Fold this sequence. Notes:
Chain B: It is a multi-pass membrane protein. The complex is a heterodimer. In chain A, helix 2 packs across helix 3 and helix 8 crosses helix 9 (271-284). Chain A has helices at residues 44-51, 95-105, 110-123, 139-151, 169-184, 196-202, 220-226, 241-249, 271-284, 299-307, and strands at residues 6-15, 18-28, 33-37, 59-64, 67-68, 80-83, 157-161, 188-193, 205-210, 213-218, 231-238, 254-259, 263-268, 288-295. Chain A has a 6-stranded mixed beta sheet with strand order 6-7-8-3-9-10, with helices on both faces. Chain A has a 4-stranded antiparallel beta sheet with strand order 2-1-4-5, with helices on one face. Chain A has 10 helices and 14 strands. By secondary structure, chain A is α/β, with parallel strands linked by helices. Chain A folds into 2 domains: 6-225, Rossmann fold, CATH 3.40.50.300; 230-296, ACT domain (Alpha-Beta Plaits, 2-Layer Sandwich), CATH 3.30.70.260. By secondary structure, chain B is mainly alpha-helical. Chain B has 2 domains: 2-40 and 187-386, no CATH class; 48-161, abc type-2 transporter like fold (3-Layer(aba) Sandwich). Helix content of chain B is 71%, strand content 4%. Chain B is built from 16 helices and 4 strands. Chain B has helices at 2-17, 19-40, 57-68, 78-86, 98-106, 122-148, 153-166, 179-183, 191-218, 221-227, 232-262, 269-293, 297-314, 326-332, 336-349, 354-385, and strands spanning 48-52, 72-74, 92-95, 113-116. In chain B, strands 2-1-3-4 form a 4-stranded mixed beta sheet, with helices on both faces. In chain B, strand 1 (48-52), helix 3 and strand 2 form a beta-alpha-beta unit. In chain B, helix 3 (57-68) crosses helix 6 (122-148), helix 9 (191-218) packs antiparallel against helix 11 (232-262) and helix 15 (336-349) packs antiparallel against helix 16. Chain B is elongated. The two termini of chain B are 23 Å apart. Residues 169-178 of chain B have low confidence and may be disordered. Chain A binds chain B through residues 49, 52-56, 71-72, 74-75, 77-78, 80, 82, 84, 86-93, 101-102, 104-107, 149, 153, and chain B through 2-3, 6-7, 10, 13-14, 17-18, 216, 219-221, 223-232, 384, 387. Magnesium ion is lined by residues 44-45, 85, 161-162 of chain A.
Amino acid sequence: xxxxxxxxxxxxxxxxxxxAVDGVSFRIAPGETYGLLxxxxxxxxxxxxxxxxxxxxxxxxxxxxxQPMTPRTTGPKRHLGLVPQELAIYPDLTGRENLALFGxxxxxxxxxxxxxxxxxxxxxxxxxxxxxxxxxYSGGMKRRLNIGIGLLNRPTLLILDEPTVGVDxxxxxxxxxxxxxxxxxxxxxxxxxxxxxxxxxxxxxxxIIDSGRLQAEGTRDELVRLIGGVDTIRLGGTGDLAGAAxxxxxxxxxxxxxxxxxxxxxxxxxxxxxxAQVVGTAAAHGVTLADVEISRPDLExxxxxxxxxxxxx
Amino acid sequence: MRNALTIAGVELRLFLRxxxxxxxxxxxxxLLVLMIGLQFGEGATTGRVAVSGxxxxxxxxxxxxxxxxxxxxxxxxxDDALELLARGRLDVAVRVDDAAATAHDxxxxxxxxxxxxxxxxxxxxxxxxxxxxxxxxxxxxxxxALEAYGVVADRVDDALSQAARATSVPVLEVxxxxxxxxxxxxxxxxxxxxxxxxxxxxxxxxxxxSATLIQARRLGVVARVLAGPVSAGQLVAGEMVGRWAIGVFxxxxxxxxxxxxxxxxxGSLWLSLLVLVIFSLVAAGTAILLGTLLGTEGAxxxxxxxxxLVLAALGGCMVPLEIFPDTxxxxxxxxxxxxxxxxxxDIQRRDGDFLDVLPQLGVLAAMALALAALGGxxxxxxxxxxx
Lengths: 313, 387
Ligand SMILES: Nc1ncnc2c1ncn2[C@@H]1O[C@H](COP(=O)(O)OP(=O)(O)OP(=O)(O)O)[C@@H](O)[C@H]1O
Ligand SMILES: [Mg+2]
């Protein structure tokens, strides 16, 4: 456990009367991608700011690569790559100059610096625009530069704060792919988002955060299991749906059946295992099925279950 | 230290890259040096006098005397002289008519017609002409006296120069009629404007830099820098050094360009540079303080320009300190500009050495330290609070 890249223990941060982060703890192992999933104002950026040593925690500790992180320490910051939510680049410097500047501040010099800058430029696909001032870049290019700066020092822990907000689908896809690639190379990633698809796709483990509290944590499947068997099977068709409903309720594993005129919705433990039996039973009661739909719970429903509200407001 | 220098380097680079800065940094100060030189500078150089009338001992004598006083003398006809005077091309016109020339030769009372122009220094030039005539009359009187004692005319000159060598008659040379003119003695035409503009623009250049600090914070690059292995102290030092470098750069440029283009004399170079270096530190500290206290770039630029102009005006950079009334002069001492202005005055006009300007440098250094400490503290505090 001690070789965890990041250990966050009982962090608390208040702004006046508001407790923006309220006892958050989690760990990230080397090479692991950890997602903080939560709606606007949940406390994601505040948590990350403490992890990166930008603001002090009121309570709790952050340990990066075994070293305690506070705003006053610079040592553990060498292991971090931070990609802030808002673009943090100099608009009047070119892409290459931006990278060179931050690389120098990371302690890179001379040939090592130049080499790394070129590597990152091609990694983020900006090699051919490196000489243009970054204010002339498109939104997606700026975002990629913003990410590139976080990669300069080959961090052990890369922190990405909602890197895909306001990005067109194509750039978004490129960003997600490069995060997957980096994680494949063994970089640990802390990724915040309020898009559950991103969390599901990228993250090994996910922490669900709301109102400053970590509501639940685990792999996607663990989280889904938390809220129990709530798969649904929806049958659409004509015939005696109401009559079939009584028979369907008797199938072991079916918890609830609600019918309307042309459809029935079953709440079941394990939809894929039961669907054949359900369809057979319905057919036996003279129901002519037009469609069958299985849905399994996603993080959205987990979130709804945990907090009583949706991820997006 | 490396980190601080890296940050400072970016500040300087961004400053020079901003197109709108280029005019204000490179062209505008020199334009003002030129304008102020034309307005205030004339009194400090020679006057311009026309001596009209045919060749005579009196006329050539006046011309010779004035020219040894570095006055520019021309010999137009009287009507032309009056017209030049009216157009401001002359300070004083003197008419040496035949009657005056004869009276002079005979040692009688000489009546000269003299018209003075309206330029600020015409009075001083008039005094130059009067003393030139006085010198000639005294000399002529001596000659007449010797001749009366029977000295042959050819020998009179020798006798007088011998006498002049033998005795040390106190020579009373009235060149300047008031204290003010005396202040500007030894000053080239553009020197006065140059030091004032240097102070004005160094301060302005630094203060407009306060907007870039606000921009950097708004853009989040400040936070990003601090998320790397860079301490808040290094960041503050870098921002400070960056602004200071901008000030020194601006000042150094004005010194170089004004001396090449307008022949401005800066006196002892290293002393002038020392004043610039310390004054720039005051400006840098002020800029950091402003950039920390104000919330938006617009507010910072506005306040920066406003403060820069007011302090410069109070500190004698627009109108020379020497012509301030006493109370204003006292008030001017709250500005760093006034102290630096006086240091430059010592160095440029009076060949002041290090000890002469030590008091001014001391006050400036104290201001610089106080402001740098205050600015650094405020920036650090605001970084810790609002990230
Ligand atoms: N500097 C600050 N001063 C006062 N309140 C703050 C400050 N920073 C954040 N907050 C508050 O703390 C809460 C959490 O904010 P935070 O930025 O961490 O949310 P977030 O999860 O990152 O949201 P988003 O998805 O919108 O980025 C919010 O209510 C916010 O208003
Ligand atoms: Mg956020």
